[in-house]
Specification:
Blueprint lengths: L23 E2 L6 E5 L2 E8 L2 E7 L5 E8 L11 H8 L10 H9 L4 E6 L4 E8 L3 H13 L5 H19 L2 H13 L13 H6 L2 H11 L6 E6 L3 H10 L30 E5 L4 E8 L8 H12 L5 H8 L4 E10 L4 E9 L4 H16 L5 H18 L3 H15 L1 E2 L2 H10 L2 H12 L4 E7 L3
Parallel strand pairs: 4-8, 9-14
Antiparallel strand pairs: 1-13, 2-3, 3-4, 5-7, 5-8, 6-7, 10-12, 10-14, 11-12
Helix pairs in contact: 1-4, 1-7, 9-12, 9-15, 10-11, 11-15, 12-14
Length: about 450
């Protein structure tokens, strides 16, 4: 690993200027260079805009994302963030239409899209390296000067309502949203990312415009790119495409001021919902550690042990040995100040109680340290291989960089992460499993509606 704060000079290494050998803080404006598996990750801050790139010279393409550190938990009106994600593709003040935006990427075989999350929003494109200037020009025009017209707003309101209605027909969407609301009651993390049908219909256009004015600017923008890209050339291209934005060398990056969730002290009663679905679904979980926690890798190992594939505890106990469910897994989510951890099974209504019992039983088994070193070694290989395979494409690499800048605010080099996974021992996993098991557990059941 090579980390070079200040002016990059090849060959420096170790911990310099407050940058640790295990995780690289992204809270300051010092330039960073990191050699990782034959690629070069560089980071610079210019006029408040953060640039982070991973140069992969053996590829033909570039994935570029324009990230904003404001998501659904940072809005005054439920759905304003999601509205912007839709409306930025509808046209710009420079006269670029929705058709022009779509044609720009289709004409070169590229793709463009956007993602709204609870703590971020990003707009991205995946194109050939030769088409990167076009992608930057179009995306910057969208981000800096969206038209935000009333007619487009009214049309997208209908589209978003259709999207939310579609989610209500998806049992897992319904289940996961109910789980989040139970884990984080009376907190934005417990609300739907896209808002509710009621909040979307009630949100006025001026609030969407205000959300853009508040959170879209040089001091909040992160430009992340991975692929065949030159860091300095990327900066030059972005600066030339700033549109109405003006940079100030004294500007520093800005983040939302957030209230961490305050969790209820009383035990959570199981929540049962009834919907017109055929299958039953059950989730069991709790709040968890934040994205920047030093033992995040331990949680990943715990999650894989319990429900990460066909060899996992849940799959073997619930599906293979008893045939109680077709799908069962464990999952985790991570935010800047909290997270969730949960176990899931989809089964026949008569099997819900037994599945929930087996999920809790396997969780408690790991909390007691009842798993072997052999089992742990298998899971280490599974997790490490999955992480590396998941970063084989440039969109995944770009997403890793953008998420590091905005959510965890630290970059953990892959080789360091692999070493941390490899060095994890049984007691560490058992301790985290026990800590989570002792927290306020939430159980949500979704059952077929009674006649």
């Amino acid at each position: 690993m090579t980390i070079l704060p200040g002016t990059p000079k090849k060959g420096a290494s170790g911990s310099i200027g407050g940058v640790s050998e295990t995780s690289i803080s992204l809270d300051n404006c010092d330039p960073i260079e990191l050699i990782e598996d034959g690629t070069v990750i560089r980071r610079s801050v210019v006029g408040g805009v953060r640039f982070i790139t991973q140069s992969v010279p053996t590829t033909r393409s570039v994935a570029i994302g324009f990230w904003v550190p404001a998501g659904s938990r940072d809005e005054e009106y439920g759905g304003a963030t999601h509205y912007l994600e839709h409306l930025l593709f509808k046209g710009t003040k420079s006269g670029r239409s929705a058709t022009d935006i779509a044609n720009s990427f289709d004409a070169v075989g590229g793709e463009s899209n956007a993602v709204t999350a609870k703590e971020s929003t990003h707009y991205y494109a995946n194109v050939l390296a030769t088409d990167l200037p076009m992608a930057i020009e179009v995306l910057m025009d969208m981000v800096t000067a969206p038209a935000l017209q009333e007619a487009d707003f009214q049309m997208e309101r209908s589209v978003i309502v259709e999207e939310l209605t579609m989610a209500l027909d998806d049992p897992q969407d319904v289940l996961h949203q109910a789980f989040a609301a139970e884990v984080f009651p009376n907190h934005p993390l417990g609300l739907p990312v896209g808002g509710t049908i009621e909040s979307v219909q009630a949100t006025p256009l001026h609030q969407v415009r205000a959300h853009h004015e508040r959170w879209y600017g040089p001091d909040t923008l992160v430009v992340a790119a991975a692929g065949k890209v030159d860091h300095e050339q990327l900066i030059d291209m972005v600066l030339k495409a700033l549109g109405p934005w003006r940079l100030d060398d004294s500007t520093t990056p800005r983040f939302p001021e957030r209230q961490a969730p305050v969790l209820p002290e009383s035990a959570a009663e199981p929540l049962t919902l009834y919907r017109p679905f055929e299958q039953a679904h059950v989730l069991l979980g709790c709040d968890s550690i934040p994205a920047g926690a030093p033992n995040r890798h331990v949680l990943s190992l715990l999650s894989v042990l319990l429900g990460g594939g066909m060899s996992s505890r849940l799959f073997q106990e619930i599906r293979e040995k008893r045939g109680l469910a077709y799908s069962t897994y464990a999952f985790q989510s991570a935010y800047s100040d909290s997270g969730t951890f949960a176990l899931y099974a989809g089964c026949a209504p008569d099997n819900v109680t037994e599945c929930a019992h087996l999920m809790e039983q396997q969780w408690s088994e790991l909390a007691a340290g009842n798993f072997s070193e052999h089992e742990l070694q298998r899971v280490k290989g599974q997790l490490t291989g999955g992480l590396l395979l998941g970063l084989e494409d440039n969109v995944s690499r770009m997403s890793r960089l953008g998420t590091a800048e905005i959510v965890s605010r630290q970059l953990l080099p892959i080789n360091v992460l692999s070493e941390k996974i490899s060095g994890t021992e049984v007691p560490e996993i058992a301790q985290l499993a026990a800590d989570l098991y002792q927290r306020r557990r939430v159980q949500v059941e979704l059952l077929p509606q009674r006649n």
